[in-house]
Amino acid sequence: MTQTQPRADTASASGSAVDFGTLPVVRTRHWIRWILGAVVVFVVAQLVWSLVTNAGYGWPTVARYFFSDAILRGLGMTLSLTVVAGAIGFVVGSVLALMRLSKSPLLNSFAWAFIWFFRSVPLLVQILVWFNLGYLYPTIGLGVPFTTDYFVEAETVTLVSAFAAAVLGLSLNQAAYSAEIIRGGILSVDAGQLEAAAALGIPQHRRITRIILPQAARSIIPNAFNEIIGLLKGTSIISVIALAELFYVSQVIYNRNQQVIPLLLVAVLWYMILTTVLSIAQFYVERYYSRGSARVLPPTPVQKARAWISLQWNRLEDEPKKVDA
Amino acid sequence: MTTTLARPGHVEIRDVSKSYNGVEVLSGVSLTLEPGEVVTILGPSGSGKSTLLRTINHLETVDGGWVAIDGELIGYEHRHGRLYELTERKVLGRRTQVGMVFQGFNLFPHLTALENIVEAPLALKRLNRADARQLALGLLEKVGLGDKAGAYPRQLSGGQQQRVAIARALALQPKVLLFDEPTSALDPELVGEVLDVIRELAGLGTTLVIVTHEIGFAREVSDRVVFIDRGVILEQGTPAEVLGSPRHQRTRDFLGTVL
Fold first, then answer.
1. pLDDT tens digit sequence for A32-50
2. Which of A193, A196, A203 sits opposite B123 (nearest CB)?
3. CA diameter of chain B
4. Contact A195/B102, CB-based, under 8 Å?
5. CA distance B19 to chain A (A)
């Protein structure tokens, strides 16, 4: 039996009359894949149809408020909270990460306790406490340590505004999480790198900034962008202290005009746009830091699109010849 | 010690001992290297040869004894009858007199071959950017990689990476150059190109200390071969003495396993 079944290698080896290289290839049909694909297309189509036809979404209302002054001002507040709290969070987080990796047990334990505390207390609670700090410390001032003799003193309520409370809560919380992300990134760098840098006599600060952090960045960045996107949407929690950020503003508007869903949609769409921008930024930042780790850098979407278009174009040019033949 | 030497690169290791978690890796090792000498350290794995090498540039601190290069203590300063631990900055300063080549290359993967080489001279402000670049290109030429200046380590073969690492170590013009099993991580056909580069460095005035398992190479380039076992120097001498007619049974056993 086995002798009668021709196999590619034996056929060519024995000088078979058929040259398999010239035969057309029939690709496998992936029926399951086609069926599942059809289901997905159906579900998406249904969703789009309902988005368009269901008047409840109130698209005209969405359009009316999307660029309204109040919403744009709220958006500005959301952005500044994200940028300020994100920046402070990552700077403090970097310091905490280095403290955690320090040989000093005191610095190490302090950083550990900081991270432990701010990861333990819910963000919402933190923000409320910062906002109501006046109950604990009616005044804040500079003076002789461990006494109540102040040189300068101010009312806590005036010092810690709603914005300050929001920034404090968000950035300290962010610092605790960033610290662990940055520490993880630093730990992921091979110990031999530090050794080589030390053997070359490169000073410590430059070893960190030039050798360790650029390599740590590869594992820090995806997590860092996760955190920033989380922070961006997390700012909506600030609405509890009536600070006029995007989400609070849309709440105020729908409480007035009862257009709940359209105004929530306005907020959601803005969050989606900002997240998209951040995701695009993430792609390029990751690409930058992958220098040296990949033999060839991954193509940018623009490059991919160009390659795809030129491929399709070439196919089009080939097409008429086949028709002729 | 003010034996003003005509040529720098004199290394003195005196009674050095070192333990890890109660296990003694080096017990009272003394070794003196003359300027420009090429010394190969042989020994079974775990014998302490890498640790000894690493004490020379203070990557490893010692529990007892001391190491000095051209009369300057490594890691400590001798003042008023006491040894003061050096600050990080001073340790780094003295370390630049000693170059090191690692088994695993340890090139900086995010920097090109050229950037790897100019990093230390620039960080230490020894050279300006243009001069450092010039020096690096010259060194790359010297190790036969003149056309690879812009390549990232991952785009190079193991042998090429190790040659870049040697060029990087040479960029600071060290008096002493340490090689920690420089060919052990390489495919057999790539060993030769790295050994060729090291061979060219021998006799140029830099003191070379090479930990290796390449006995043939040791016989060819070394002025002296040192055999270490269980943290002590068992015997040392010319390659002909140690490799040709070893006095100790353990040296004979070791040579029997690697030859």
1. 999 999 999 999 999 999 9
2. A203
3. 55
4. yes
5. 20
Does residue A25 lie within any of the structural domains?
no
Beta strands in chain A (DSSP E): 139-143, 150-155
* Structure token digits, residue B107: 């090139």
pTM, rounded to two decimals: 0.79
Pairing of strands B207-211, B38-42: parallel
With respect to residue A4, please indicate whether it lies within any of the assigned structural domains. no
Beta bridge partners of B83: B78
Asked if A165 and A133 count as a contact pair (C-beta separation under 8 A), the reply is yes
CA distance B198 to A220: 39
Q: State whether B92 and A203 contact (CB < 8 Å).
A: yes
Q: Does A196 sit within 8 Å of B93, measured CB to CB?
A: no
DSSP secondary structure code for residue B86 in this structure: P
State the Cα torsion A281-A285-A288-A289 to the nearest 10°: -160
Domain containing A114: what range?
A: 58-291
Q: Is A200 in contact with B152 (Cβ distance < 8 A)?
A: no
Number of Cβ pairs < 8 A linking chain A and chain B = 78
Domain count, chain A: 1
Give the containing element (helix H, strand E) for B19: strand B11-20
Q: What is the pLDDT of residues B139-175, one digit of tens each?
A: 999 999 999 999 999 999 999 999 999 999 999 999 9
For A196, B54, B81, B122, the CA distances from A202, given in Å and listed in that order, are 9, 17, 30, 9
Residue A91: inside a domain, yes or no?
yes
Beta-carbon separation of A203 and B89 below 8 A: yes
With a CB-CB cutoff of 8 Å, which residues 179-208 of chain A face chain B?
Answer: 190, 192-193, 195-204, 206
Long-range contacts of B213-216 (CB under 8 A, 24+ apart): B213/B42, B213/B181, B213/B184, B213/B258, B214/B183, B215/B42, B215/B243, B215/B255, B215/B258, B215/B259
What does DSSP say about strands B76-79 and B82-85: parallel, antiparallel, or unpaired?
A: antiparallel
A29 located within any domain: no
